[in-house]
Every structure is written in structure tokens, then in C-alpha cells.
Write a structure and sequence with these properties.
With about 425 residues, the protein is of the alpha/beta class. It has two domains: about 170 residues, Methioning gamme-lyase, C-terminal domain (Aspartate Aminotransferase, domain 1, Alpha-Beta Complex), CATH 3.90.1150.60; about 220 residues, Aspartate Aminotransferase, domain 2 (3-Layer(aba) Sandwich). About 40% of the residues lie in helices and about 15% in strands. A seven-stranded mixed beta sheet has the order 1-7-6-5-4-2-3, sandwiched between helices. Strands 8-9-12-11-10 form a five-stranded antiparallel beta sheet, with helices on one face. The chain starts with 15 loop residues before the first helix and ends in an 8-residue tail after the last helix.
Length: about 425
């Protein structure tokens, strides 16, 4: 019997018109895919070199008990992170529960009552606003312990407002804070080149000021990390880019050794610092995930580019645009209605390997001011290097698409989302 080949996409209910449209989009962005390969290769060699330099061994996959003194795998992992990020030291621990926790450790570990924190990328991500105390009085916020806060908005074009920053630096802030990714804002992610200029600007006017970057979603997007061009601290989550989809939990902080020491005493206890703390048998996942991260991040970036191309061609506002510089893995699409955003997220969930039968619904997520819908049928709960989509359900109703351990999975998710929007009459495809 002759076997009839059926496109695998039809198994997911993808119509021929949607499949044809997506393939046309792919042809248009092939040259951009090829450029991503150069950065991926550079970062792969960078990670490989750090692992070889620090003599990574299979014995580093073992773990200790009790206090965790002299756990070689943990210590080797932190040396590798420090080398890749071009810093003096690093903390990489499973006891850091998420990116917000890593950032919280940086702020509470280095700032003291009366110190001033200055954000130069406008209001930070929702959970960091809660940490600072912007959203009102809550226990253990920075404002409660007497840490002062100011912010400078980005310009309309998404650049640093140097006149306003210069004025704000006169108050001698202890820390200048940069959020690299867009978060839930309609703006550019901050590129390495722009951070380089900012670092030179700040240090020339206030050399004692700590430069700190929330590096979430930005690792391995470029050949250089912010800590290699003048930033004193960078922090992020292991269930985002650097975990490569294999880290089950955790966060990292990389930076100057004196700052890492201060932060380590906040992480554990004064006088104990980095000396204690188990890896709980997760080191192999951390090492292997970090090794895979340059490749995995590139796969996610390819999915983001396809998303931008699809919805740009359909007349929707997208950010970043196809020709824009990218410094995080997030792709924003302005869908213009609450119902369309929910439709989009439902399709991403239905395309997932885990919990594809579950329907995401908006909910009051801790740390957020508005209801949020999140589609994330992921192997690691909440992992946003895996295919996911989310949105705070407020006008102008923007869907934030990110991740994809493989480009093929991101592609299927986008086709499913497109098909769902067509079926529900939120858009049409003109061939």
C-alpha cells in the first residue's frame, strides 16, 4: 500500500491557508535566522571554554548534605558563571526561587537605610514595584526599611534620558538600576551598546554608584553581557534563558566580589555567606542547561522573529519589529481586545506538551496589579524559556509571546494561535 504523506501540521487542525501563510513568512526571515547562528556559536564557545577552564568533572554532579561545606559542584558552577559573565564572583543557587528573589537579594544586600535607588528605565516590572514599595505599604519592602527611590522615564523612542539622569545623579544614588527586558511595557529592550554608554556616563559622574541590571530574558542575546561593559551586578532566573530549559528552579547573581559577599550574607546569614547551602542534586541540570542555553535561546529568538513577521504582515502592531535590534526574547503583539488575547493564550496552551487540555483563565496573580492570563504548558512550572504567552488584561491588550525549547514547537504554537484567531473571526488571512 502506498503511504500518503500528510503534513504534520494538519494533525493540529492547521488549515492549508494558515500553513501557506506561515511558510511565506519563514522565507522572508531566513537571512535573519542565519545571523542568529553567529551569536549562538560565539556564546557556545564561551560557555564551553569556561567549563574547560574550571575543569568541570562528573564528580561535580554529586552533592553534599547538611551545611553543604566544600560542595565542589556548587563552587565550580559559580566560577563558570563568573567567567561567562566576566565578573569576579557569582552566586548560583536553587534556593533563589525566581528572578524577583535574585533582584531582591541584590537590593537588600547592598542598600542600607537612607540609601537611594534610581531606576533609569522607568517603572520596573510589577513584582519589583512591590519589592520597592511603589504599590503601597507592605511588610519588608525597601521603603519600609528607609531606602529611598526615584525613577527616570525612558524617552519616547525608548532611549535613556541623559539630561534627567544627570540631574538625578546629583543626589548621589547608591544604585542605578536598569531593567533590560521590556516586561509589560511597549518599549525596546535595552541593548548592550546602550548599556555601555550608560555605564560610562554614570561612572564618570558618580563612580561610587553601583550599576545593577535585571538581566532576565536577556542572557545570550548578544556576545557580551552587561557585566562585561561596566555593570557591577547582574541577576536573573534559571528557569529563563541561562537554565536552558533543564534547570528545575534557581537564580543567579554575578558581579564584583565585594558586592557578592554582601549579598551572600543576606542570602544565608551574616557570617555564613556562600559557605553553606546545598545544591540538592541539581548541579547536573544546572551545568547541562547552561551548556545548552546559547542554542535554546536562539531557538526561542527564531520563534519570536516568526511571531513578529506573522502579525506584522497581518497589520497588527508588533514590538520589536522585524528590523529592530533585539536584546530579550519577548515578542509583543498588540491584539487590541481582551477576547483576542485570551484566544491567543488558549491556543498556546493547547499547543503545549504539558497540560494541553487545560484552559488558561485570567487570575489575580501575586505581585501584579491587574488580572493576568498565562499560558505555559511547560515541563518546568513557570519556565519562560519554554513556549509561553501571557498578558495583563488591560488596554491596549498586548500578548507577550516568548520561549520555545525548539523552533519547531514555537512554530506550531504560532500556527495554532493564528488558526484560533481566524476561527474565532478576530482576523482573516488574504492569500
Amino acid at each position: 500500500m502506498k503511504r500518503i504523506e500528510v503534513p504534520s501540521e494538519t494533525l493540529f487542525g492547521i488549515s492549508k491557508s494558515v500553513l501557506k501563510f506561515v511558510k511565506q513568512c519563514e522565507k522572508e526571515i531566513q537571512s535573519q535566522f542565519e545571523k542568529l547562528g553567529d551569536t549562538r556559536a560565539y556564546n557556545q564557545y564561551k560557555v564551553l571554554n569556561a567549563m574547560q577552564k574550571n575543569r568541570l568533572s562528573d564528580t561535580d554532579f554529586n552533592w553534599n548534605s547538611g551545611y553543604g561545606y566544600n560542595e565542589s559542584g556548587r563552587d565550580t558552577l559559580e566560577k563558570i558563571y563568573a567567567d561567562v559573565f566576566g565578573t569576579e564572583d557569582a552566586i548560583v543557587r536553587p534556593i533563589i526561587v525566581n528572578g524577583t528573589h535574585a533582584i531582591s537579594l541584590c537590593l537588600t544586600g547592598t542598600l542600607r537605610p537612607g540609601d537611594r535607588l534610581l531606576s533609569v528605565t522607568g517603572p520596573p516590572y510589577d513584582t519589583i514595584r512591590t519589592l520597592i514599595g511603589i504599590n503601597g505599604p507592605k511588610p519588608s519592602t525597601l521603603s519600609e526599611i528607609g531606602i529611598l527611590y526615584n525613577q527616570v522615564e525612558l524617552t519616547e523612542s525608548g532611549d535613556f534620558d541623559y539630561d534627567s539622569i544627570s540631574e538625578a545623579l546629583k543626589s548621589k544614588p547608591k544604585m542605578v538600576y536598569v531593567q533590560r527586558s521590556t516586561g509589560y511595557e511597549w518599549r525596546k529592550a535595552v541593548s548592550i551598546d546602550k548599556m555601555r554608554v550608560l555605564a560610562e556616563f554614570v561612572k564618570s559622574r558618580s563612580d561610587e554608584t553601583i550599576l545593577m541590571v535585571d538581566n532576565c530574558y536577556g542572557e545570550f542575546l548578544e556576545r557580551i553581557e552587561p557585566t562585561e561593559i561596566g555593570f557591577d551586578l547582574a541577576a536573573g532566573s534559571l528557569i529563563k534563558n541561562p537554565g536552558g530549559g533543564l534547570a528545575m528552579t534557581g537564580g543567579y547573581i554575578a558581579g564584583k566580589s565585594n558586592l557578592i559577599e554582601l549579598i551572600s550574607h543576606k542570602m544565608t546569614s551574616p557570617g555564613i555567606g556562600k559557605e553553606c547551602g546545598l545544591s540538592f542534586g541539581m548541579n547536573r541540570h544546572f551545568f547541562q542547561g547552561f551548556f545548552m542555553a546559547p542554542h535554546t535561546v536562539t531557538e526561542a529568538l527564531k520563534g519570536a522573529l516568526l511571531c513578529a513577521c506573522i502579525f506584522d504582515k497581518l497589520g497588527f502592531d508588533t514590538f520589536p519589529g522585524l528590523s529592530d535590534e533585539r536584546s530579550d526574547i519577548i515578542q509583543s503583539v498588540k491584539l487590541n481586545s481582551k477576547e483576542a488575547v485570551i484566544c491567543f493564550c488558549e491556543a498556546i496552551q493547547a499547543s503545549s506538551p504539558v497540560d494541553s487540555h487545560v484552559r488558561p483563565i485570567p487570575w489575580d496573580m501575586p505581585g501584579y496589579e491587574t488580572q493576568v492570563i498565562m499560558a505555559a504548558g511547560t515541563f518546568i512550572q513557570g519556565s519562560s524559556i519554554e513556549l509561553s504567552a501571557d498578558s495583563p488584561l488591560t488596554p491596549p491588550y498586548i500578548a507577550y509571546f516568548q520561549g520555545g525549547l525548539t523552533y519547531d514547537h514555537a512554530r506550531i504554537g504560532l500556527m495554532k494561535a493564528l488558526q484560533n484567531l481566524v476561527d474565532q473571526k478576530y482576523l482573516s488571512i488574504q492569500q
